[in-house]
Amino acid sequence: MIDWPAVVAEHGPRVWRTVYRVLGHHADALDCYQDVFLDAHRAAGRSPVSDWAAFLAALASRRAIDRLRGRTRLRGRVTNLDHDPAGAADPAEAAAVAELTARVRDRLAELPERQAEVFWLSCVEGLPHDRIAAHLKTSPGAVRVLLHRARAALGRSLNEDTATRSRR
Amino acid sequence: MSRPPVPPEPDPLDAAAAAFRAMPVPERPADAVVLARLTRESLSGVLLFGGSPPVALADVVKAAERHKLVKYKMTMTTETIPPAGITADPPVTTFEMVLYADLRAPRFRHVVPEEVRGNGLFRSSGYTVTDLTRDRMLTVFATELTDKAAAPDLSERDKAVLKSVGPGGKGARLTAIPPRQAAQPKQTLLDQLRQLQDHKEAKREPDGKLVKYTVPGKTTTEFHTADGVTTRELDTTTVLWVDPATRLPVRMTTEVVDPDSPRRPNPADPKFTTLTRTDSTDFEWDPKLPTGVKSVDDLFGLTPPAGYKLDDQTKKPGEEAAPAKP
Predict the structure, then answer these.
(1) Would B14 be classed as within a structural domain?
(2) ipTM of the complex
(3) Lateral strand order in the sheet of B107-117
C-alpha cells in the first residue's frame, strides 16, 4: 500500500519546481502539478515504483512538456511569466534571461517528446543518464544520443533565432 | 605583454539550464488539495470503472496519435425552432456521409454512395476531397442514366433534369475552397481531440461499457446577412464516447445551439433558434483503403482517377490555373 501523503510531502516540492519552471505559468503549473500525481497514482497501480524521485521527475517533465506543446500549438507562447528571473539585479539582464528561457521553452515544445524530456532531466534536473534510462526503458547510451540530438537541435534553433533577430 | 585570455562564450543552453534552475517558484499547492483529488480519483475508479484504470482524455489523444487515418460516418442535422407565437414548420435538413480523415493534416474525403437521383432518371456516385492545406476541393462523380431516361414519354420536367445532367459519364471538378471556409481553423480530428483534452470542464461518466465525456465549449460562427458579416461565439457541447479497452473514440457528437439565429423564413419574424448536430459514428482507425487507392496521399490526392475528365475551375478564363498553396 503506497503512503500517498508521504509521497506528496517528500516529492511534491520537486514536482512543483519542475512543472512551474517548464511551464513558466502559474495556472498551468497548478493543473499540471495535480495531473502528475494523478498519473503517478494510476501508474503505480499498474506496476511498483522503485525510484520515486526519478519516476516523479520524469513524469513531471513529460507532463509539463506535453502541456507546453499543446499550449504552443493552440495559443502561441505564453509570455506572462509570474516572476522575475533569479539573480538578476540588472533589469536588462533580467529581461535577457527571461527571453532566453522563453525561447528555450518554445523550442523545447518543438522537439521530439523523448529528446525534450532527456534534455530537461539531464541538463536542468541534473539526473544521471542511468536513472533517466531506467525510466525511459532504454539504455544510458541511447539517453546520451537523445541528449546530443536535443542539444544540437536546440542550439541550431537558438542560433537561427539570433540570426533572424540580428537581421531585423 | 601578452593579452589576458578571453573567457569562452558561455553555451546559451547551459545558461538557459542554469536560469531554469535558478528560477524562483511560488509556494506549491497544499498537499491536501492533491490528496483530495487522488481520493476522488480512487473512488471514481473503483465505483465507476470497476477498478480498471479510468481513461483520461490525454490517453485518448495518445491512442489516436498512433494512427494516420480514420474512417467514420457523419450525420449532420440542422433544425430551426421558431420562437413562441410564430407558426412555422421549417424543414429539418440532414446530410449523411462516410468520411476518411487524415489525422496528420486537415484533408478529408467524403464518399457519396451510389444513389438514384433526379426523379429516377440517373444514378450517381463519387467522392469529394477537401484539402485545407492547399485550399482546394476535388469533386469526382460518375453518372449513369437509368432505363427511365430512355423512355419516349418523358415529362417536360424530366427532360429539363436530363438536360442539366448531360449524357452521363465520368467527370471531376477542381475548385478553390471559398474564402469564408478557408479562413476557418484548419483542424484535423486529432486537433479537435487535443482541444477537448485542454478543456478543464470536461465531465466523465460511464455509459454502459464505454466512457462518456461531455465537454462544453464555444464555436466561432460567421454569419453573412444583408447587413454584412458578423462573427459570434456560440455555445457548443461535444460528447465523446471512448472504448476503455482501446482508448479510442467510438462516437462523437457536437451540438451547437444558436438562440438568436439570423436564419428565418421571413426576415420580419423574430429570430429563430437553430440546433446543429453532428453525429460521428462507426470509427475505423487505419482502415483498409478503397479499391484502386494505393496510399493515404492517393486517397487525398487532387488528381482525378484515369478516365475522369477534369474541369479545373481554379483557372480564370484565359489564364492558367491559379496556384494552389504549396
Answers:
(1) no
(2) 0.85
(3) B203-207, B210-225, B228-243, B248-261, B272-285, B69-81, B93-102, B107-117, B122-131, B136-145, B169-176, B309-312
